[in-house]
């Protein structure tokens, strides 16, 4: 299993809208058969900062399968144009 951690930073004035978009979009991530779990949290100190945490069956399941699927476009649609630049995305594995 691999945990994807992505940090999204809302454009000024779009903090609430980004949060709502993440809530809508996360349902598409959860529909992927290789997604084990998906959660989003909001930073207390910086309310425009959100952390998405997704557990995938493998790195390939996220990078190749999900990102090249229609579900990826559906996940991103509610948040496009609401965050700064590209999100910071890293993958972690327990050891």
UniProtKB/TrEMBL annotation:
Coiled coil: none annotated. Residues 1-77 form the ABM domain. It holds the Pfam family ABM. SUPFAM superfamilies: Dimeric alpha+beta barrel (SSF54909). It comes from the Bacteria. This is ABM domain-containing protein. It comes from Dictyobacter aurantiacus.
């Amino acid at each position: 299993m691999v945990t994807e951690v992505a940090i999204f930073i809302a454009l000024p004035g779009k903090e609430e809208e980004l949060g709502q978009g993440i809530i809508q979009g996360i349902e598409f991530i959860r529909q992927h058969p290789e997604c084990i779990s998906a959660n989003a949290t909001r930073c207390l100190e910086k309310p425009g900062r959100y952390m998405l945490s997704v557990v995938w069956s493998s790195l390939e399941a996220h990078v190749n399968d999900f990102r090249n699927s229609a579900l990826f476009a559906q996940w991103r649609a509610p948040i496009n144009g609401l965050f700064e630049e590209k999100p910071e995305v890293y993958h972690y594995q327990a050891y």
